[in-house]
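User: Before I run my own analysis I want an independent prediction to cross-check against. Here's the chain; please return only the structure tokens and, at the end, one sentence I can use as a sanity check.
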Amino acid sequence: MDKATSAGSASQAAGGGPRALTLRAEHDLLLREVTARAEGVLAEADSGRWPQQQLQGLLDYLHLEVLRHIIDEEWLLFQMSHYAPDDLAPLRQDHLDLRGTIEELADMARRGVDGSATELSRTTRNLLVRLDNHIRVEQDLLTAHDEVPSTASLGRRPHAWYDLTEGPVIDLAELPGPLGVDAVMSRLLRLRRGEQVELRANTDPAPIWHRLATADPGGYGFSYLARGPRQWRVQITRRPAS
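Assistant: Structure tokens:
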């Protein structure tokens, strides 16, 4: 499964619908998204091919969504629990172990085709087992008495937004408020040299261009495809290296 197929299927599951209101629903979404991307890696690796594109797609999601979720949980959810710090220490260690597995995959991606597809397959499966176990243990601890709210319902960016920014067209109407702008900026700053994305909005998206120009002066091109009044369309291009 390539990145576009994975993103498409994940988008149907996560969609632009209502954000997950409980931690359990949020965890289900994360596990579903990681599994979809990991299956693309495994399909190639198990056939003896090096899945560079699929692996990068998996790592992007792990770094941008899973690791962010871990940080959000520690700050937003653990402080809401009634457990002593020592009771939560195993979960924090589990977070460190999960980060370690993700970095193992990142090291393999850096080695590229010189790496072992068999080792990559084994580490990817280990990631899925570790993530599933981590989610189960964490839910048992944090939801022992009450249904814990999701990090998104407590003010963090919804994980369902990730796929809304991954295609060639980003509709700002589906990504409201400052958190939506942050999600779009995260995507634009990850564009490859020469890659283009079209922004669509109900108002002039020039403020996003100004933020982008400040973050990387001269690194992006910005051209209007339509100037309202009902819809604004802007093409943003990551310029090739000088």
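Sanity check: Strands lie at 169-171, 196-201, 220-227, 232-238.
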